[in-house]
């Protein structure tokens, strides 16, 4: 691990170490299947083993790593079955969130999203993939943040941590990003038209298509 990525404060809390672990997994610095030797990590990050152990426990509870008795923890290796299960749950939760937030969605919000969509048009600039992913997150946040149920929001945000891993994989396939962009635009158009049934159906189809896409790029 490079020196620039080392945590240098000896008093790092378990909370900050947890975020450091998740950041490493999401960025690919700690790839799936990699073992996490506690002593070596503590030395590299210049932290005590007790807060590091607590951070690993929390990462395991969040599903990012697997703790094994008398063996080193490992970064969770996602299988096609994991992807299908995760997206099945996501489909149920997101549809419910969109239904709950429907009456509170404002024209200002949809206009802001439409501007993001215009900026993210595939091949419009060399940054189009990054802008498509930003549009993706902003669109889903419309109902994730606006559903009025803090427990539902927390569950969906936990799912989105995994989605960041999938986005990293999918971003290497520009045609997949462009397909998702068109699906997002369709959902936004249905919301703008106040066609709730169509918006919900398109959202469900998009999430199912995303699951198949992730399975294709699964390392």
Helix and strand layout, with pairings?
Layout: H1 14-27, H2 38-45, H3 49-61, E1 65-68, E2 71-75, H4 80-101, H5 107-119, H6 128-144, H7 150-170, H8 174-192, H9 196-217
Antiparallel strand pairs: 1-2
Task: Looking at this protein, list some descriptive labels.
Four Helix Bundle (Hemerythrin (Met), subunit A); mainly alpha; Arc Repressor Mutant, subunit A; 219 residues; two-stranded antiparallel ribbon; 2 strands; 2 domains
Characterization of this structure:
This protein has two domains: 3-75, Orthogonal Bundle (Arc Repressor Mutant, subunit A), CATH 1.10.10.10; 80-217, Up-down Bundle (Four Helix Bundle (Hemerythrin (Met), subunit A)), CATH 1.20.120.530. It is mainly α and 219 residues long. Strand 1 (65-68) and strand 2 form a beta hairpin. Strands 1-2 form a two-stranded antiparallel ribbon. It has nine helices and two strands, in the order H-H-H-E-E-H-H-H-H-H-H. Helix 4 (80-101) packs across helix 6. It has helices spanning 14-27, 38-45, 49-61, 80-101, 107-119, 128-144, 150-170, 174-192, 196-217, and strands at 65-68, 71-75. 68% of the residues lie in helices and 4% in strands.
Q: Spell the H/E element sequence.
A: HHHEEHHHHHH
Largest sheet: 2 strands, antiparallel
Silhouette: elongated
> What helical percentage do the residues reach?
55-70%
Distance between the termini: 22 Å
Quaternary state reads: single chain
Supply Rg. Answer: 19 Å
Strand proportion: under 5%
Low-confidence stretches: 1-8
In total, the number of strands is 2
Would you tell me the structural class of the helices and strands? mainly alpha
Summed over residues and divided by their number, the pLDDT gives a mean of 88
> How many individual helices?
9
Strand order of the largest sheet: 1-2
CATH superfamily of the largest domain: GntR ligand-binding domain-like
The CATH C-level name of the largest domain is Mainly Alpha
CATH topology of the largest domain: Four Helix Bundle (Hemerythrin (Met), subunit A)
The CATH architecture assignment of the largest domain turns out to be: Up-down Bundle
């Amino acid at each position: 691990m490079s020196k620039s990525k080392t945590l240098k404060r000896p008093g790092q809390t378990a909370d900050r170490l947890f975020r450091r672990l998740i950041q490493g997994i999401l960025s690919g610095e700690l790839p799936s299947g990699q073992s996490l030797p506690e002593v070596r990590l503590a030395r590299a990050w210049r932290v005590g083993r007790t807060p590091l152990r607590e951070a690993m426990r929390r990462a395991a509870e969040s599903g990012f790593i697997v703790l094994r008795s008398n063996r080193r923890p490992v970064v969770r290796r996602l299988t096609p079955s994991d992807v299908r299960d995760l997206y099945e749950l996501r489909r149920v939760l997101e549809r419910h969130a969109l239904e709950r937030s429907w009456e509170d969605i404002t024209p200002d919000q949809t206009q802001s999203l439409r501007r993001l969509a215009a900026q993210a048009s595939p091949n419009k600039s060399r940054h189009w993939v990054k802008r498509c992913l930003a549009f993706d997150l902003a669109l889903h946040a419309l109902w994730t943040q606006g559903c009025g149920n803090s427990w539902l929001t927390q569950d969906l945000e936990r799912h989105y941590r995994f989605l960041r891993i999938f986005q990293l994989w999918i971003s290497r396939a520009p045609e997949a990003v462009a397909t998702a962009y068109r699906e997002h635009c369709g959902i936004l158009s249905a919301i703008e038209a106040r066609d709730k049934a169509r918006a919900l159906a398109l959202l469900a189809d998009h999430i199912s298509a995303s699951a198949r896409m992730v399975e294709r790029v699964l390392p």
